Amino acid sequence: MKVWGTLLVALALFGVGLYVTYDGLVSKEEAVFRAWADVESTLQRRADLIPNLVATVRGSAAHEQETLKLVVEARTQAVQPLAPRELSDPALMQRFQQSQSALGSALSRLLVVAESYPELKASRNFQDLQVQLEGTENRINVARERYNQAVGAFNGAIRSFLGARINERFLQLEPKEYFKAGETAKAVPSVSF
User: Fold this and answer.
1) 176: nearest Cα among 38, 79, 33
2) Does some domain include residue 141?
3) pLDDT tens per residue across span 20-55
4) Long-range pairs for 179-185 at CB < 8 Å and ≥24 separation?
């Protein structure tokens, strides 16, 4: 009788462990999706600021059409969403990150061009947009960090001993890709005085 009781307790504990692990994996994947939604939301905020920024610069620096065109084209590419289920595809994530890097580069170029126009720099509208853009870039960085933390927790959970067995048997969840720095971030900047 004691053996049966011990066996029942062991089976109950195993069942509870399966249930908790299964729910934990699902919950961690949802946390990745929620964090990705936050990344996309902050990226959309940046994309929403760009038309106003371009219009403001266009009014003061009309002959900078090439730079303005690059910003608009980069924005168009960058607002193409990446579905949560595509977060496991390295090629799609890399393409998404490249479009975001291209937009960042185009915006940087636009802000450098704006430095050449004192009346534009003095414009209250331009200054406000620049402050909002800077704040948004900070939010994007925080959202990316939170996304990468959620990915780390999720990927670790599906690779743990019990998590891997449950995932393999019941869920078949794919590891998610981290948001990585673009190739331009890896280059050493050249500084000359």
Assistant:
1) 33
2) yes
3) 788 888 999 999 999 999 999 999 999 898 888 888
4) 179/39, 179/93, 179/97, 179/144, 179/147, 179/148, 179/151, 180/97, 182/97, 182/98, 182/100, 182/101, 182/104, 183/101, 184/101, 184/105, 185/101
Assess if residue 9 is contained within a domain: no
Residue 12: inside a domain = no
Residue 37: domain span: 24-179
Q: Report the CATH number that the domain containing residue 105 is assigned in CATH.
A: 1.20.1440.20
Question: pLDDT tens digits, residue range 84-110?
Answer: 888 999 999 999 999 998 898 888 888
**72's tokens:** 């608009």
Q: Which of 43, 10, 9, 34 is nearest to 147 (CA)?
A: 34
- Give the number of other Cβ atoms within 10 Å of residue 100's Cβ: 20
Q: Is residue 18 in some structural domain?
A: no
